[in-house]
Amino acid sequence: MRTLNRLLLAGLFTSIPLATMAADDAPTPEPEVTIRTEGDKTIQEYRQNGFLYAIKITPKGGKPYFLVRSDGTEANFIRSDQPDMLIPAWEIFSWK
Hints:
Blueprint: H1 2-24, E1 32-38, E2 41-48, E3 51-59, E4 65-69, E5 77-79
Antiparallel strand pairs: 1-2, 2-3, 3-4, 4-5
């Protein structure tokens, strides 16, 4: 009986660090919003657990629009109000 109690206690002590690590990696319920200004546009980047999933662009004299990920994995964004519009994402120069 003592051996069983010791095993249960040892199992409890080994599971506590795992539970605290899982609590640290738990998904956040609200997105992180980063707001910056480029020229005459205000750009809001929406992230969930560090994953950029949407960008809201508000031109100074225009209607705001959203860019969302086209397939969920790549960095290819499309306009949510005009999904057939292609957003150029060419790499002109690269220093590696």
